[in-house]
Amino acid sequence: MLISEILHKTVESASLAAFKDKNFQKENLPNFIIEKPKNIAFGDYATSLPLQLAKTLDQNPIKIAEAINNAIPKLKEIELCSVEPPGFLNFKLSQEWIEKQLLKVLKDKEKYGSKAEVSSKNIQVEFVSVNPTGRLHLGHMRGAIIGSTLSNVLQSQNYNVIREYYVNDAGNQMNNFGKSLLERMKEIKGDKFSLGENHYKGDDIKEIALTIAKEFKDEDLDSISKDLFSLITKRGMEICIEMIKSDLSDLNIHHDNWFYESSLIKSNYLDETLTKLKDSNLTYEKDGALWIKTKELGDERDNVLIKSIDKKPTYFATDIAYHRNKFEERKFDEGIDVWGADHHGHVKRMKLVLEKLGIESSRLTVLLNQIVSLKDIDGAARFSKREGTSIFIKDLINEIGSDACRFSFLNRSSESQMEIDINIFRKKSSENPVFYIQYAHARMSSILRSSIYFDISITDADPNLLSTPGEIILIKKLLEYPELLNRVSYTLQVQELPAYALELSQLIHKFYENNRVIDEDIKNIEMTKSRLLLVKASKITLSNLLNLMEMESPEKM
């Protein structure tokens, strides 16, 4: 059990015991949290529960805090519990308990931070899901990295996680994609060609067209049949998906499932979903199109499900069917969608429709990620896939490496627009946070290699010898790691991971610079062993975190 969970349970029990005479029941307790105080002078953890109870109990929060404090039993984990104005309960961890936790880090090794308890909760994380009409560009990278990292965190907490890519292969964009390929194939053959406003114009389209042109070299491209056009489009999509998979693989991203939009149509699942909506009196026909009454449900306007021009479904129609499939057919307990910020309006209407289909909208969580720009290349320009002005993922990886890409795109909340100065990530110095963090790992690795050279074993190391402020602060930071992963699995705020990595690395570097770990004087062998214990625990924790972020943990630099 995490220390925050132990404290939460303890405070809850003490509160019920302290006010038993007032018939105070568990249901009277508000939701409260155990958190780290901003000022470390106040202790290691704190809660503001007494302030929350002041109105309910009609008492001074200081008096409430004192009553709860008096009801808290002696715990091996806690050295001191104190009351601070205006009504906080503060907890200082026992130094002996803290130091013993180092042994748990070494025992758990690569499992440190992961939960042992198996969860029955099935979670689907859908991310990237870019139209298969070209290579992935910078605007897609953020969602890809957030989605993959979040999936790793959830899996570390023993949830059953499926990483899914929803392939939009049935909309009008595929028709435009096919036409774009056809015109580029004509260009390659030296024939007359024309690119319209809705055509995709990037170099990636030329690359795909070049491959297809070789495969269909004997065809008359000026008078192709509908079937041949479909074949060219399908082949282009296949090549494009292989490109996407390759780009994602370069970022250490792999999906468990690729779900095709067209399968919803071929299996009649879309028709079944539309029938359910009609039977619920949620649709109507107007101007030859089928509409859904989303305004009546609370949205700004009604939305088209089936277009009047070609009688084909809109993106919203198939997306409703897709989300129904997630929850009704495949029985996911929770679905997390990582979307671009331009889908903001789509979130509310999707949740409204799910409720009408009998699916609790709380089962769907949508993370929106904002625009990204590169400081020394494109200013704050947005990216247009059709105009061919995109910066491809593979180009940025080639420029600064996969690790720098992953760290920089995780470093801010997905809701914040961000500008990345790639010059920083080219530097081999502490100015580059990726270099700084990985160098901390390499330093710990170097010390451990030296311990082998000097034939020093830490099997009997005594963690109680670690008592300097720098050592204790570093140990406490290591103990935050399981708490961090547990918290992120609930808040989904993955930007906490790189922040923690940087804080931990700063403490590791400071410890390295201020302490002589391996002392060749035999009189100090016990202290050497204890410090090597701390070094190994630091290396394990940092390595585990870097693995979660799909970044390398270098042994040498």
Any low-confidence stretches, pLDDT <50, length ≥5? 378-386
Shape assignment? flat
CATH class of the largest domain: Alpha Beta
Which structural category fits the helices and strands? Answer: alpha/beta
CATH architecture of the largest domain: 3-Layer(aba) Sandwich
Radius of gyration from CA coordinates: 29 Å
Q: What is the CATH topology descriptor of the largest domain?
A: Rossmann fold
Compute the number of strand runs. 13
The main β sheet shows up as: 5 strands, parallel
The percentage of residues in β strands lies in 5-15%
Termini distance?
A: 37 Å
Mean pLDDT: 94
The CATH superfamily of the largest domain is known as: HUPs
Main sheet: strand order? 6-5-4-10-11
Enumerate how many helices there are, as a single number.
Answer: 19
Percent range of helical residues = 40-55%
Instruction: Quickly count the domains.
Output: 4
Overview of the molecule:
The chain is α/β, with parallel strands linked by helices and 557 residues long. It folds into 4 domains: 3-93, Arginyl tRNA synthetase N-terminal domain (Gyrase A, domain 2, 2-Layer Sandwich); 122-168 and 257-377 and 392-422, Rossmann fold; 172-250, no CATH class; 427-548, Isoleucyl-tRNA Synthetase, Domain 1. 50% of the residues lie in helices and 11% in strands. It has 19 helices and 13 strands. The chain has helices at 3-18, 49-57, 61-71, 95-108, 138-156, 172-189, 203-215, 226-250, 261-266, 269-279, 294-297, 315-329, 344-356, 393-400, 402-410, 433-453, 469-491, 496-514, 525-548, and strands at 45-47, 78-84, 88-93, 122-126, 160-167, 257-260, 283-286, 289-292, 303-306, 334-340, 364-369, 372-374, 418-420. The strands form 4 sheets. A 5-stranded parallel beta sheet has the order 6-5-4-10-11, with helices on both faces. Helix 6 (172-189) packs across helix 7 (203-215), helix 10 (269-279) packs across helix 12 and helix 12 packs across helix 13. The chain is flat, with a radius of gyration of 29 Å. The chain starts with a helix and ends in a 9-residue tail after the last helix. Residues 378-386 have low confidence and may be disordered.
